[in-house]
Design a protein that fits this description.
Elements lengths: L8 H17 L5 H17 L5 H16 L3 E5 L1 H6 L1 H11 L2 E4 L6 H13 L13 E3 L9 E3 L8 E3 L5 H9 L3 E5 L6 H5 L2 E3 L3 H15 L4 H10 L2 H21 L2
Parallel strand pairs: 1-2, 1-5, 5-6, 6-7
Antiparallel strand pairs: 3-4
Helix pairs in contact: 1-2, 3-9, 3-10, 3-11, 5-9
Bound molecules: ligand PTJ.
Length: about 250
């Protein structure tokens, strides 16, 4: 029996990895999703495997932005469906955000498995399945360009967790506000989004739901001030400084 407690960050990280591997075995996650997880783990390690001050302020801004939205939506990919299906649905209920499955590596079988998982975890309506209501977003080469007319295409605020860079740029060009979860503060998505939560989605998602609940009693003026006061570039730079500090602290003991 291991002497390391379950709450230890390394053990938690291994449990998260297991969710991804199980998600792959169950047909939810693309092969490339395992690589994305590895990249995320490396950054998580460098960030100290905990939710820092910068992530907390991004979470607060994201909650305010979601509550101000006329039509918020959360985009779901294979990794998200494997890592936190229940939590993502709780967030969507709390913020009245719709859900749309949108895959980089398009695959109907995987899409069906993702929808089944979301439904088993309490999702009622899931967009991204009806070919009749689909349309194309300009400026994207991948399958991600196919979106629902009544979903991502019409939304004013889009949550794109664990995302590749092209779509964030295209969605911003289409006038939408973008919120992302990305452990890499240097990724194109992180740098392009309006609000980047640099934290493991498995830790940050519940905090975002809790913050949304807390802020739901506030008026729009109060919420707008939170969003206006948030500076994504500054926040990302603070994450990079955090990584540098962690690296030099560790190097001293090497
Ligand atoms: O299911 P699909 O077909 O839509 O494909 C999904 C993946 C994730 C494979 C696709 O979007 C992709 O290739 O993404 P990238 O370009 O690898 O980017 C994923 C980003 O998410 C990277 O910057 C990772 O550091 C980050 N990341 C990985 N795991 C986590 C994470 N960020 C937060 N929490 C994580 N658990």
């Amino acid at each position: 029996m291991s002497l390391i407690p379950k709450s230890h960050p390394r053990v938690k990280s291994l449990l998260i990895r297991k969710k991804l591997v199980d998600g792959f075995d169950n047909g939810l996650v693309a092969k490339e999703g395992l690589l994305a997880q590895g990249r995320g783990e490396a950054f998580d390690y460098l960030l100290g495997e905990k939710t820092g001050k910068t992530a907390k302020s991004a979470i607060k801004a994201a909650a305010a932005q979601l509550l101000l939205a006329k039509m918020p939506i959360i985009s779901i990919n294979g990794n998200v469906a494997a890592l936190c299906p229940k939590q993502i649905i709780l967030l969507s209920k709390q913020t009245k955000a719709k859900l749309e499955v949108n895959l980089f590596y398009a695959n109907e079988k995987r899409k069906t498995a993702i929808i089944k998982t979301l439904k088993e975890n309490g999702a009622k309506e899931i967009l991204g399945t009806n070919k009749k209501s689909s349309t194309k977003l300009l400026g994207i080469d991948s399958a991600r360009r196919i979106v629902d007319k009544n979903g991502i295409f019409a939304a004013d605020v889009v949550v794109v967790p664990l995302e590749d860079g092209d779509r964030t740029i295209a969605l911003k060009k289409a006038g939408k506000k973008i919120i992302t979860f990305d452990l890499n503060p240097l990724s194109r998505t992180s740098q392009t989004a309006n609000i980047t939560i640099v934290d493991n989605i498995t830790r940050a998602i519940d905090l975002l739901t809790i913050e949304s609940k807390k802020l739901s009693k506030k008026n729009p003026k109060y919420l707008k001030k939170i969003v206006d006061d948030f500076n994504n570039k500054k926040n990302l730079n603070e994450n990079v400084i955090q990584i540098k500090n962690n690296l030099s602290r560790r190097a001293k003991f090497a």
